[in-house]
Design a protein that fits this description.
By secondary structure, the protein is mainly α. Among the domains are: about 60 residues, no CATH class; about 90 residues, no CATH class. It has eight helices and two strands. A two-stranded antiparallel ribbon has the order 1-2. A hairpin with a 2-residue loop joins β1 and β2. It is rod-shaped. It starts with a helix and ends in a 15-residue tail after the last helix.
Length: about 325
């Protein structure tokens, strides 16, 4: 209202001056001078809450410099300004960042982990350690090293992936029926997550199998009477105890190859098994000798023209000791 009155007073003075000039009369002074400039400027100030100028400009007016400094979103310290790297137009919460580009692909349960769980304060510029032990507590108390991925995958802790293929890197590769055994069969302390190294000697697990042969139990050869030691792998494989092989026997008579490959001990030694002395080479003597005629009884006709032929087990062995097929005798001599 005061500003309006001042304006009207000024207008009245101007009209009076115009009329005086026209009438050639002096202008009468105004009884009420206009409001001071400072007072007018004070009345021109905006009321509280009123917006002035453009967004980003200081209240002083268009002449003030705009504030263009980038301020990262809350919780994204040092983050890139390209929101589309991680977010989609559907919403802020749905993140579509491809972690494969970082060299650490997120698979299995790692996909369910929030970004802040590995990147504190959402600082994506700070390097994150990639070792398993950096995030996962070692329940094995460092007895198995810190390479969790050698036995586990990202799908679950309970299902270990340390199978026969991985076991080949140890001092005891798993082959045959050993590969089908559960871990607890050899690692009895698995439930304590210790996995201490078990014994690798055959008798450590097969002592009862060895003792079962005493007296020919179950039709097996009496290993004690024959002088066999407890190194089962000398004759047996990992798939089954039957049929056994005896590599040292080839020194005297080939049974791993040729026409006699795969024959059993009692197929030839029908009455008794020659006693072996562990750690000593075979003497290639047997009393009584191997019973060759047990299988080769009808050989008289084939030896009708053989000088010095005698139908006996010992003479069979003296001529056919290397088990070459007839008519080759004595290691290949016709």
């Amino acid at each position: 209202m005061i500003a309006l009155r001042s304006a009207l007073a000024s207008l009245a003075v101007a009209l009076a001056a115009t009329a005086a000039v026209a009438a050639d009369k002096p202008v009468a002074p105004s009884l009420k001078p206009p409001a001071p400039v400072a007072r007018q400027a004070q009345q021109a100030q905006p009321e509280p809450g009123m917006q002035t100028g453009l967004p980003g400009l200081a209240p002083g007016g268009p002449s003030a410099a705009p504030d263009l400094t980038f301020k990262p979103p809350e919780g994204h310290a040092g983050a890139d300004t390209r929101c589309s790297f991680c977010h989609t137009p559907e919403g802020w919460k749905k993140v579509s960042f491809s972690h494969d580009k970082t060299g650490f692909p997120l698979t299995g349960r790692h996909r369910d982990v929030t970004c802040a769980a590995c990147h504190p304060q959402s600082d994506f510029t700070r390097p994150v350690p990639r070792a398993c032990a950096a995030c996962h507590r070692d329940v094995h108390a460092q007895r198995l090293g810190q390479r969790c991925d050698r036995c586990h995958d990202t799908a679950s802790w309970k299902e270990a992936s340390f199978g026969p293929d991985a076991h080949r890197r140890t001092a005891f590769p798993l082959t045959g029926r050993h590969a089908a055994l559960p871990c607890e069969e050899c690692h009895g302390d698995r439930r304590d997550r210790a996995f201490s190294r078990p014994v690798v000697a055959c008798v450590g697990c097969h002592q009862k199998d060895y003792d079962r042969t005493i007296g020919g139990g179950g039709g097996a050869l009496d290993h004690v009477l024959a002088g066999f030691d407890t190194t089962c792998r000398t004759c047996h494989g990992t798939y089954a105890f039957k049929r056994a092989t005896f590599p040292a026997h080839d020194t005297c008579f080939a049974i791993r190859a040729g026409p006699h490959a795969g024959v059993g001990c009692r197929d030839c030694h029908t009455t008794s098994i020659p006693v072996l002395v562990a750690g000593t080479p075979m003497t290639c003597t047997s009393t009584p000798p191997a019973d060759c005629l047990h299988c080769h009884a009808g050989v008289d006709g084939a030896h009708a023209n053989v000088p010095g032929y005698l139908r006996s087990n010992q003479r069979c062995y003296e001529c056919h000791r290397f088990a070459a097929p007839l008519p080759r005798l004595n290691g290949g001599r016709p």
